[in-house]
Amino acid sequence: MKSIFTLMAIILSSGFVFPQSGINLQELECEMLENPLGIDVVQPRLSWKIETDKSQVIQEAYHIMVASSREKLQNNEADLWDSGKVKSDQSINITYNGKELDSKDKAFWKVKIWTNKGESDWSETNFWSMGILTYAEWKSTRWIGYNQLFPGESVSQFSRLSARYVRKNLELEKPIKEAKIYLMGMGLYELYINGNQIGDQVLAPVPTDYTKNVKYNVFDVTEELSEGKNVIGTILGNGRYFAMRQEYKPYKIKNFGFPKMAMQLVVEYEDGSSETIKTDESWKFTANGPIRANNEYDGETYDARMEIPGWNTVEFDDSDWMNLMWVQEPGGFYEGQMTPNMKVKDTVMPTSVNKKDDGYILDMGQNMVGWLQIKVNGKRGDTIKMKFAESLKEDGTLYTANLRDARVTDHYILKGDGTETWEPKFVYHGFRFVKITGLNSKPEIKDFIGKVVYDDMKTVGEFESSDPIMNQVYENAFWGIRGNYKGMPIDCPQRNERQPWLGDRTTGAYGESFLFDHQTLYSKWLDDIKYSQTLDGGIPDVAPAFWRYYGDGVTWQGTYITVADMLYRQYGDVSGIRKHYPYIKRWVKYMEANYLKDDLMTKDKYGDWCVPPESLEIIRAQDPELLTDGDVLSSAFYYYLLNLMEKFAGLIDAEEQDIAYYQDLSERVKTAFNEKYLDQSKLVYANNTVTANVLPLAFGMVPEEHEQQVFENMTREIEVNKDSHISTGVVGTQFLMRTLTEFGRPDLAFTLASNNTYPSWGYMAENGATTIWELWNGNTADPEMNSQNHVMLLGDLMIWYYEDMAGIKSDPENPGFKKILMEPHFDAGLDYVNASYDSSYGEIKSHWEKNGKKLNWEITIPPNTSAKIKVPVSKISNVKLNNNQLESLAENVSVQEEHVIFELLSGEYTININ
Q1: Is residue 139 exposed (0-12), middle (13-18) or buried (19+ Cβ within 10 Å)?
Q2: CA dist list (Å): 659 to 336, 561, 677, 835
Q3: CA dist., res. 25 & res. 347, Å (int)
Q4: I need a surface site. Which of 145, 294, 295, 574 has the fewest CB within 10 A?
Q5: What's the whole-number mean pLDDT along residues 518-525?
Q6: What is the C-alpha separation between 776 and 786, in angstroms, rounded?
Q7: Rounded Cα distance, 235 and 294, in Å
């Protein structure tokens, strides 16, 4: 019988997809991920998606086979693991439970399933390979480098260090069966074999605190090597290892030393023997190559006159190159990189190029993150200078005051032999405009290409509505979010900061998950936070702690908890909670021991950061009526986090006393909070800022008998005193849109979302923003802090778009979209919404449109899931499903509180509502 199913097998470990370093874009965007290399956990997790044209499909059982070779698997010899037929509807996060795997082992696997609609064929074969699992296997591999400056290099506030060009000749004396490279290149690397670049990753590897952990990448290089003479070449850039501000403010900025590398090339020969080539002092290098400087803040300088033709080929004579030295290892533990590297993910063509003063101003038409590829002609020694900025002054020159001391300038020195094409290797810029000087003729638009660079992740969400302002804000959010993915989530990509601030992503990570498949990125970031924790439990404001900021707040540090919760909610992944629970618990107790006074949390550092100030020219509000007391913020947030910890303890079967501890402490905080901050006569909290009221409402702290009145007083504050505009900062905005909607005012939330006057997201767009600003008044405030590409003020806006306007929400009791809650708020103010989200089970679609008093709603529910549908009518007869009576196709149909509620299994449906 022909199968009606296609199974898309996905390799997971700790719940995450692991693509090969260097896998191409088309493969990465497919659901079938080939060749995941270097997995460094012994029990990877497996998932699959079901593709079928059948409706109402529920998996009833699965059978997984894992073998040590493709041939054994084809013969159904599951010598590593045969799960047998397992009765289960679980199709994501299945833990491998077979024979223990050793370093560098390969495992081939396939799966078949049984459903209520029949049995599938076996899936296509997929495989993964293990990384190097123990430090002992690395200890004989020496780190090599050169810890001295060359002429022209400097260590200062504006450090300059040339790229190191490294090479090693080797001879392989037998036919090769397989070869892999395991590489740690600090701070950044490019890898070559026999003149060919390996992989299309850029700015690799992902950044970490190298004293705590160091990531290695793995490449299958079988096709690039051959019997006989070969050469390995690398270029080492500075990255965050040779820090951007060396020996400048050492009390604040962490740096690690000079670039260095460690590598193993493991070759298996066809005769069954093997050989491992490792880095040692015989490797040769030079710093006299064309990359004369590379600094993330200041730019890259490339002198094409100093290019070294053939430097990475066998024929090259390296006799005058220096030998590298054995150098001290970074100090951190070696880990396989379980998240993709960055890549050039998109390109942007300029919209105009115009003469200005001594050069030309290039307009990309979009605030973007990456770099510029140029095509130029000129005389030998001519220098092309490219300075980057986000906006222009009124006179048409670059506005750079907001970049602080970042020089953000690339230099290209021509070799003078015709048309030359160049782009940098080890920097990135946040920019829309570029001033180009040094050209000897007027450039054309076609001479430039903007390269958009961010982590190699899939775009999983689309959203369009009837409101053009909301659509532009969504587009701005899309560009801002992806531009700030740099192996970690950073705050901004353009000035001398670019730091992974925790508070920017407390709720933001949740909203971002609807746009991008960022599971591995945020799983890695949880590790960054864990590694940065102090022994007594403190968590920094920035992790990895490249800046030594340990402010001991709650609203920033609590991100450690909220991101773990997001990974569980959106991806059904409990492993992050299980892994990090002991460290989070240590922080909870640390905060209690040091800062809990009279059952209130008394430590806050940043307040409700970036509330709209009383004057358009200032950065931070000074008027006490606009500011929310720090103890209000920290106490409410601490209560919220304690409730999450209670949930975590239950999920991982923690000790019973843990649950009792969180329950008791949270109730004490709630009681003390209401006693001190709830004004019983006015029924408002503290000084009645929107933030002071929205947090206890969102967290369930308000006594039930007062909830509605507190909410109405908050909405009055928004509508009357704030003229239906935003008045919250980073903290309050994280819960504003959902709380308004939950308590019955989606119309007011829509007003905030669709405003185009100050302060609002639409005001940014109306004033030329193509990303999200750092400040509500980012076009008028003092330039000290008005980045034009931040995401922190998005708050819960993207969550509201998808969950409340599109009706695509994961049931908290059945996470990872195993069960979907679909309840769009049709009455908010929109006429139509067309949205989709590609979940772990498949694509969810929601497209609704009003037509007078009728409403047409088309939805898609992926296989092996179900959806609870809620529509705002009081009669079942007013709802048709695929032109049939509702009861004939839906399950559990009922009427509750003026809503018809029913359940649907997978399939495509049209719902007509009168």
Answers
A1: exposed
A2: 34, 16, 27, 39
A3: 14
A4: 574
A5: 97
A6: 9
A7: 12
Rounded Cα distance, 246 and 298, in Å: 13
Q: Which domain holds residue 163?
A: 135-290+306-339
Q: How far is 246 from 149, CA to CA, in rounded Å?
A: 13
Total-model pTM? 0.96
User: What CATH number does residue 473 fall under?
Assistant: 1.50.10.10
Q: Which two tokens stand for residue 620?
A: 């931070």
Domain CATH code at residue 37: 2.60.40.10
Residue 295 in domain: no
Residues 108 and 147 in one domain: no
Task: State both tokens at 886.
Answer: 């509702």
Strands of 94-95's sheet in order across = 16-17, 6-13, 45-51, 94-95
Span 63-80, pLDDT tens digits: 999 999 999 999 999 999
Mark whether 122 and 151 lie in a shared domain: no
For residue 10, pLDDT over 60 is answered with no
Residue 345 and residue 457 in contact, taking contact as beta carbons nearer than 8 Å: no
Q: Is the pLDDT of residue 35 over 60?
A: no
CATH number, domain of 442, equals: 2.60.120.260
Q: Is the pLDDT of residue 325 over 80?
A: yes
Q: Are both 357 and 268 inside the same structural domain?
A: no
> What was the pLDDT predicted at 2?
37
Quote the CA–CA distance of 67 and 76 in Å, as a whole number.
8
Spatial distance between the Cα atoms of 843 and 425, rounded to a whole number of angstroms: 36
Is residue 544 reached through a cis peptide bond, with omega within 30 degrees of 0 on the bond before it?
A: yes
Provide the percentage of residues in the chain whose pLDDT is more than 90: 92
Domain boundary among the residues 774, 806, 838 is at 806
User: CA of 600: how far to CAs of 22, 590, 657, 670, 869, in Å?
Assistant: 51, 14, 22, 9, 40
Residue 34 in tokens:
């080939």
129 token code pair: 């390979």
Cα–Cα–Cα angle for 765, 766, 771, rounded to 5 degrees: 15
Query: Which residues are identified as catalytic?
Result: 497, 774
Q: Using CA of residue 538, residue 560, residue 564, residue 16, what is the dihedral sign?
A: negative
What is the H or E stretch that residue 437 is in? strand 429-437
- Say what the pLDDT of residue 360 is: 98
Evaluate the CA torsion angle 131, 134, 140, 145 in order and state its sign. positive
363-373 pLDDT per residue, tens: 999 999 999 99
667: helix, coil or strand? Answer: helix
Is pLDDT of 188 > 70? yes
Under 8 Å between Cβ of 56 and 117: yes
762 assigned to some structural domain: yes
Question: CA 828 to CA 225: how far, in whole Å?
Answer: 62
Residue 252: CB partners within 8 Å, gap ≥ 6?
547, 548, 549
Q: How many domains does the chain have?
A: 5
Looking at the structure, tell me whether residues 87 and 34 fall in a common domain.
Answer: yes
Instruction: Measure Cα distances from 159 to 257, 292, 428, 533 in Å.
Output: 12, 12, 17, 29
Give yes or no for a contact between 321 and 242, defined as CB atoms under 8 angstroms apart.
no
Q: Quick check: is 703 in a domain?
A: yes
Cα–Cα dist 218/216, whole Å? 7
Residue 747: left if φ>0, alpha if ψ -120 to 50, beta else—which one? alpha
Q: How far, in Å, are 559, 660, 690 from residue 581 at the CA level?
A: 13, 16, 32
Segment 678-724, tens digit of pLDDT: 999 999 999 999 999 999 999 999 999 999 999 999 999 999 999 99
- 245 shares a domain with 105: no
Cα–Cα distance measured from residue 167 to residue 162, given in angstroms and rounded to the nearest whole number: 16
Residues 446 and 468 in one domain: no
- CA 481 to the chain's CA centroid: 8
Whether residue 551 is found in the same domain as residue 436: no
Question: Within a domain: residue 445?
Answer: yes
Which domain-ending residue is among 401, 433, 455?
Answer: 455
